C-alpha cells in the first residue's frame, strides 16, 4: 500500500507542476482571486457530488481538522495565485517548492527539538538559491516573489497538518472540507478586493483550462494527496514533492517559453539541492536534542 501511496504522490506532483502553466494561461483572462474561487467552488461541488454518501459520517473532530487544514490551504493558494500573476510559471514552481525544505524545519519547531545539521544546510542552500532566483540587479525583490515565499510557508504548514490528521480521519472528508474552506475564503476576498468578472472572457479555451484546474489541478490531486499522506509520513511526501518545481520548470519551458538562463538554472539548482540535502540524509543518523521550552520562548 505504501508503494501505491508513493505513486499517488508522484501523480500529485506532476499535476501540480502542470497546474502552474494552466493557471498562468487562465490569469491572462481572469483576476487571481476569482480564478481561485471558481477553481475551488467547482472542485467542492464535484467532490460533494461524487462522495455525498460520506458526508453523513462527518463529525466535530473531522470538521475541526478539515478547517485547520483548509485555512492553511486557502492562505497558500490565494498567495500563490496572486503571486503567479506577477511572475513566470517556472519561477512560481521553484519558489513554492521551498515548502519542501520548510516542512522538517517547522515540524522540528512544533516538536520542540533543535533543527538537525542537514536541515540547517538545506535551508541555507535553498535560501541562497532563493536569492539568486529572485533578487534583481539592485538587490530588490519583486512583490510576486514575496507572496510566493509566504505561500510556501502556508503549504509547509498544510503538509504537516495533513500528516497529523489524515491517519485519524477520513481523507475524503478532509479534502471536501479544505476545498470548501478555500472556495469560501477566495470568493469573499474576490468580492471585496477585485472588480466583478466579465462574462465575455469565458471562451472555449478558458473553460477547458478551468475544467482542468478544477478536476486535475484541485479535486483529484488533493484527494490523492490526502489519501497518500495517510499512508506515508510528511518527510517522505516532501521528498517526492521535490520533483514539483522540476515539472513546473519543464512544462513552463515547453508550453510558455519561460526563460532558463544561468540565473534561473543556478538558483533553481540550489533550491533543489537544499530540498534534497534536507530530506535524503536520514534523520535518525543525525541526533537532535529537545529544546527547553523556557529557553526557546515557546
Tell me what you see in this structure.
It is a single chain. The chain is mainly alpha-helical. It has one domain (2-114, 141-258). The chain contains 13 helices and no strands. α1 runs antiparallel to α9 (204-229). The model is unreliable at 285-298 (pLDDT under 50).
Q: Compute the CA-based radius of gyration.
A: 19 Å
DSSP summary, beta strand count: 0
- Strand content of the residues, in percent? under 5%
Q: Which structural class do the helices and strands define?
A: mainly alpha
Number of continuous helical runs: 13
Main beta-sheet annotation: none
Give the total of domains. 1
Q: What is the overall shape? A: globular
How confident overall, as mean pLDDT?
81
Order of helices and strands: HHHHHHHHHHHHH
The helical percent reads: over 70%
Residue stretches low in confidence (pLDDT < 50, at least 5 long) are 285-298
State the end-to-end CA separation. 38 Å
Keyphrases for this structure?
single chain; 298 residues; mainly alpha; 0% strand; globular
Per-chain topology:
Blueprint lengths: L1 H25 L5 H19 L9 H25 L4 H8 L2 H12 L6 H18 L8 H23 L5 H23 L10 H26 L4 H8 L1 H14 L5 H19 L12 H4 L2
Helix pairs in contact: 1-4, 1-9, 1-10, 1-11, 2-3, 2-8, 2-9, 3-7, 3-8, 4-11, 5-6, 5-7, 5-10, 6-12, 8-9, 10-12
Summarize the structure.
The chain has about 300 residues and is an all-alpha fold. The chain has helices spanning about 1-25, 30-50, 60-85, 90-95, 100-110, 115-135, 145-165, 170-195, 205-230, 235-240, 245-255, 260-280, 295.
Amino acid at each position: 500500500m505504501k508503494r501505491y501511496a508513493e505513486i499517488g504522490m508522484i501523480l500529485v506532483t506532476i499535476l501540480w507542476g502542470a497546474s502552474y502553466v494552466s493557471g498562468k494561461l487562465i490569469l491572462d483572462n481572469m483576476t487571481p482571486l476569482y480564478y481561485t474561487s471558481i477553481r475551488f467552488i467547482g472542485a467542492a461541488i464535484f467532490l460533494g457530488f461524487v462522495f455525498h454518501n460520506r458526508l453523513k459520517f462527518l463529525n466535530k473532530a473531522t470538521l475541526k481538522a478539515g478547517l485547520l487544514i483548509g485555512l492553511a490551504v486557502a492562505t497558500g493558494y490565494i498567495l500563490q495565485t496572486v503571486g503567479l500573476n506577477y511572475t513566470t510559471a517556472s519561477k512560481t514552481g521553484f519558489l513554492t517548492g521551498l515548502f519542501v525544505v520548510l516542512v522538517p524545519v517547522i515540524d522540528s519547531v512544533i516538536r520542540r527539538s533543535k533543527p538537525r545539521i542537514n536541515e540547517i544546510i538545506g535551508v541555507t542552500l535553498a535560501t541562497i538559491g532563493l536569492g539568486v532566483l529572485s533578487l534583481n540587479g539592485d538587490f530588490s525583490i519583486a512583490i510576486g516573489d514575496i507572496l510566493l515565499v509566504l505561500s510556501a510557508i502556508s503549504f509547509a504548514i498544510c503538509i504537516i497538518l495533513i500528516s497529523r490528521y489524515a491517519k485519524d480521519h477520513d481523507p475524503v472528508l478532509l479534502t471536501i472540507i479544505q476545498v470548501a474552506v478555500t472556495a469560501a475564503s477566495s470568493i469573499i476576498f474576490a468580492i471585496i478586493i477585485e472588480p466583478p468578472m466579465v462574462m465575455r472572457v469565458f471562451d472555449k479555451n478558458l473553460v477547458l483550462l478551468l475544467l482542468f484546474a478544477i478536476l486535475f489541478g484541485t479535486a483529484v490531486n488533493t484527494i490523492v494527496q490526502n489519501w497518500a499522506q495517510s499512508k506515508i509520513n510528511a518527510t517522505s511526501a516532501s521528498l517526492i514533492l521535490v520533483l514539483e518545481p522540476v515539472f513546473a520548470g519543464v512544462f513552463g519551458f515547453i508550453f510558455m517559453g519561460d526563460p532558463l538562463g544561468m540565473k534561473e538554472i543556478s538558483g533553481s539548482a540550489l533550491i533543489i539541492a537544499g530540498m534534497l540535502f534536507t530530506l535524503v540524509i536520514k534523520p535518525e543518523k543525525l541526533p537532535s536534542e529537545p529544546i527547553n521550552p523556557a529557553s526557546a520562548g515557546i
